[in-house]
Amino acid sequence: MFGSLYFDANLLYYAYMDSKEDNILEGLGKKLRAAREKAGLTQTELAKKAEINANYYAVVERGEGNLSYEKLQRILKVLKIKSLDVS
């Protein structure tokens, strides 16, 4: 019984952490989409200029993919915005 309580608490913790991470990724994706649209670029154009896969970039905009710092910096350079502007 004691072990099952610990196990259940871990499941709750991991569910919370996954949910929190999802919200962060979704928020970043929305901000990147808004910045891209403001810049007048399509997803494909931005991806090409940032030298990343266009399908991968679409996944990021939907909040389903986690960007590396390097790729985020390339995207921000293309969009001509600072890191703090998307946080």
List the secondary-structure elements in sequence, H or E: HHHH
CATH class: Mainly Alpha
Spans with pLDDT under 50 lasting ≥5 residues? Answer: 1-17
Q: Main β-sheet, in a few words?
A: none
Give the structural class.
Answer: mainly alpha
Number of helices: 4
The count of β-strands is 0
The CATH architecture is: Orthogonal Bundle
What keywords describe this structure?
87 residues, mainly alpha, 434 Repressor (Amino-terminal Domain), globular, disordered N terminus
Describe this structure in words.
The chain is mainly alpha-helical. Helices cover 74% and strands 0% of the residues. It has helices at 2-38, 43-50, 54-61, 69-79. Helix 2 (43-50) crosses helix 3 and helix 2 (43-50) crosses helix 4 (69-79). Mean pLDDT is 81; it is low at 1-17.
